[in-house]
Protein: Oligopeptide/dipeptide ABC transporter, ATP-binding protein
Amino acid sequence: MSHVLEVEDLTVEFRLPEGILRAPDGISFSVGEREVLGIVGESGSGKSVTALSLMGLIPSPPGKVKAAKMEFMGKNLLKEVEEIRGKKISMVFQNPLNSLNPSMKIGAQLIEVLVNHMNMTKPEAKEKSIEIMKNLGIPSPENLMNRYPFEYSGGMRQRIMIAMAMLCNPKLLIADEPTTALDVTIQSQILYMFRELKEEFETSLIFITHDLGVIAQIADRVMVMYAGKQVENASVEDIFKNPKHPYTLGLLDSLPKLIPEKRKQRLLSIQGNVPGLLKPPKGCRFHPRCSKAMKICTEKEPPAFSVGSSTVWCWLYGREVANNEAAGN
Ligand code: SF4
Ligand code: MG
Structure:
């Protein structure tokens, strides 16, 4: 599969009066054409900052984005993001009310995007907006154009935001907790809409959520993040059928319905809290909460280990390396 996005060793650093905070801290991932990469982790794990860094939206100072590679369709995002943002890469956020202008009719907001980014005339932009909403299954888009955001429910506003994000036919859509504020029925409608648009517009998707249940419904591949680090990258099948990292297992534990009976005994519930990122634990950042922690986990950060088609950052999968490290080799 050819990649639309390749990221290697991405770190976002914030220099704060209290110290330096890094999240994400050295993560690598890629997104294939029409692929959905789910990024999952508790809040504070660095998911949103990862998304904002791809969009070139990290305020500097205090933020600084560093990466060995951050390439989108052959372009260096660290240098050329301004030309790409809102056109080839767009983003949908959790709360559509913060992104829609409450005092402007929905139609005018959609038209403005196309006039500014795609050099369309107003009539062309209007036609295109209606067409996209129709493609996304939004009912009576002609009517909707003359209304204000407050006249619609949260679910409908989120659909409008998705339509807005799709106006310029992006190659990559980044959605940050887009269904978190919605009730479950509306949530599944919106997830369905995301799945459809992937086919309809041939768009790749990065879908950020704290909810593995949502991941199960939308993702092809998954990156699990914990305290600024990635801990496991795997296909969605492997995440659910053959999870490897103790943190992934712990997250799955909160989804009892999705877990086969036989694995229940093995599961570890996650005690404690996500650590502060100004002074993260030494070694593996998960060690204070991990029931499998070994001595090396408290001393050395685990490197990436390949296990089947998954990549896991955990010493359990590199015992030989761990033993050599312990012996000082
Ligand atoms: Fe647990 Fe050690 Fe693996 Fe970290 S490296 S998840 S502490 S076993
Ligand atoms: Mg977030």
About this structure: The chain has two domains: 3-88+168-269+277-328, 94-167. The longest strand covers residues 3-16. The two ends are 38 Å apart (CA to CA). Residues 119 and 125 are 9 Å apart (CA to CA).
